Each structure stands twice: as structure tokens, then as C-alpha cells.
Amino acid sequence: MSVINLPGLGPAPARRTALQRRIRLLVAATITYNVIEAAVAITAGTIASSAALIGFGLDSIVEVASAAAVAWQFSAADHKAREKTALRVIAISFFALAAYVTFDAVRALLGAGAAEHSTPGLILAALSLIIMPFLSYAQRRAGRELGSASAVADSKQTLLCTYLSGVLLVGLALNSLFGWSWADPIAALVIAAVAVKEGREAWRGDACCAVPSATALTPSAGAAAGSDGCADGCCSPDKQSPG
Fold first, then answer.
1. What are phi and psi of 226, to 5 degrees?
2. What are the phi and psi torsion angles at 173 (to 5°)?
3. Burial label, 190 (beta-carbon count in 10 A; 0-12, 13-18, 19+)
4. What is the gyration radius of the CA atoms in the chain, in angstroms?
5. φ, ψ (nearest 5 deg) of residue 11
6. pLDDT at residue 223 greater than cutoff 80
């Protein structure tokens, strides 16, 4: 049976404390992985002149900034007071990433340098495609139950890394197998476009119904909105898959 968190109530104090602790641990794991990911991707991208790899590495830095913002938020007793600021940091990080990656990709398309094959880049993209969905899924569940928009937004940032890993893997593979150097900057532009979309949502606070809607106050309204009381149904069990 689904548990509906009513506005102003939320999880019990003990459960809230456990969720906050879980989010802090997940954030720490995300930061650690992304620091390593950024170092490998930017180094490999620089060696191979790959705009997509460099953009992927910069996205890892953005993820670190995003996770650090959430860690800062949850270091306070009243984490809700820091919610808006954390969301703004996440959004600005997305926009900065999109601006740089777009510039670098356009420069590559105009002939500033063709990307070369990168074995470390291919391995890194494949690993991230495996690891990131599970980190995102765990944080998204905890954030939704706690009613934290910033935790959910940060989980979407982590999930974005999964999609970008797939885009990067395809771009690098096409370049390596067929010599299609244009596939690399095209992959980078896809990364930039997705980053702009996520940045806009974070700025507006559109964190997929992290805070339950008022319709959850009544059983009949909650049933109409979804078993979890979210008006858009985004928190329903069938939307909770890792992918």
C-alpha cells in the first residue's frame, strides 16, 4: 500500500532523519564518482580533441557542484530554508555547461580540429551508463519521499549523466569505427540541449512533484491524482524505474 505524505506532515521524524542521512551518503558517492569521471573525461578529451568527451567531463563537474549544493542544503537542520538556493545553483550549473559545450562543439564543426579515437573515453562512457542509473534512482526515491525538490533535481542531474553516457558512447563509437569525426560535436550539442532543458526545470523548481500536491489531503482526490497524491502522476510506482 502506498504511503501518502500530506502537506505539512511528511515522513515521521525517525524516517525523515534516515532519509536525510541516505541522501547525504548518496550525494557523497555521486561527488566521489564524478570527480574521477571528470578527471578521466577531460584528460582523455583533451588528448583526443573530443568536444563530446570534454563536455561530458564538464558535466561531471556540474554534477559535483549540484551534489555539493544538496549536501550544503542538508547540512542545515531546516533543509527547506535552503531549497531555493540549492535549486538555483543546480540550474546555473546546467546553463554554464550548455554554453561552453555549445561553443566548443560549434568550433569543432567549423573545422577547429577533428576528434580522434579514445579507448579511455569509450570505457568511461560504458561504466557511467551502468553506474549512474542506480545512484539516480536511489536519490530520486529518497528525495520524493522526503519532499525535497533539490534532491530530486540533483537525481535528475545524475540521470542526465546516464543519457549523456549513451550519447557519448554512440558518438565515440561512430568516430572510432567509421571515422565520422562530425559525430563527436553532434553528440556534444545533444548534451548541451538536454542541459538547457534540465536547467530551466531546476530554475523553475519543476522537480517532478517532489512536494506532494494538496489533492493528497483527501483519499478520493489522492486516488484521482495517483496513488502517491502527485497531480502529474510522476511519482507513481510505474514511474520509479531506474531508467
1. 135, 155
2. -65, -45
3. buried
4. 19
5. -65, 160
6. no
